[in-house]
Amino acid sequence: MQTFGARPHGGVLVDRLAATGEREALAHEAAGLRQVELTARQAADLEILAIGAASPLDGFMRESDYRSVVDSMRLANGLVWTLPITLAPALRQDEMPEVGTRVALVDAGGPLAVMDVESIYARNKVEEAESVFATADPSHPGVAGLFAEGDTLFGGALHVIRLPGHAEFVDYYLTPRQTRAVFADRGWRTVVGFQTRNPVHRAHEYLQKCALEMVDGLLLHPLVGETKGDDIPAAVRMQCYQALLKGYYPPERVLLSVNPAFMRYAGPREAVFHALIRKNYGCTHFIVGRDHAGVGNWYGTYDAQAIFDRFSSEELGIVPLKFEHSFWCRACGGMASPKTCPHGSETRTTLSGTRVREMLAAGEPLPTEFTRAEVAAVLSEYSRG
User: Catalytic site residue 7?
Assistant: First the structure.
């Protein structure tokens, strides 16, 4: 029997969205429970848990899994997992429920889920920050997000009534079951995933097309949850992807879908997390580029690639494709990397994110060696407001 895509992490795709016939009863129950209002980040985590993107987790982490992940990048059962998926509810001490009870997780639209409170425990945020982010400096955006949360965590299984609502690009919110169905329909046995929180420029395109020479299909999977305030908005990034795919990729070999998770900027640990999430969506391979999931100068250029060497290929279950920094070389007359280009830096067209923002703000055209004209047009229109 042919296999299309990778097996889910842990062997089973965990789906916590209640069956249609159960949702009304859960909503009725939720109305009588302690209400816990979720932040946008917490709702994003609930969504990836609900649809199976965070398999094998069936809810927010209990204490044993949390401690093990922070300390050793593994769940309590030994399975590789690198980031805590936790819930720190905004409740006063007198509002805290007891272990063995249930609470309703809600947003502005009403109940999202009923949660079994199976574990209540304290976290040491400094220790967590130093383990997960390799720093406790609050100027790191991931650390700042952690420090803004509470000190008490709730863990337990979710019974999801509905997913958070989305106003934009609704047709692109495909679940792991849906992406896997597309892969099977297209006959893709091998699929490479590409994570991005930025518009796709020529270097990204080069990496993707190198990978497409090795596999059957590409899942272009931009993250559309919360990012830093100075990152390009998700709606603009989606316009860039759509413009690029329209003219420069074979449509039968690429699937554009979105990842509802938010950015933690955890560098190496988040790179593995991103790979495991894409494994659950069905990817067999995952592109890991320069400073994946990094921010500022917090991580070494290729730390996010080196971390994969700490795990065996069998326990990861997805192949990391490690690429060096790529660029347009004027002497070579095309895209290249240090592995393929013999020329010096003076021949290479590279632009930092800061420089790109400066050029857009000044109305300067972005060079076609850096990004396609169609993408540059979208970014220029955005910068003009």
Answer: no
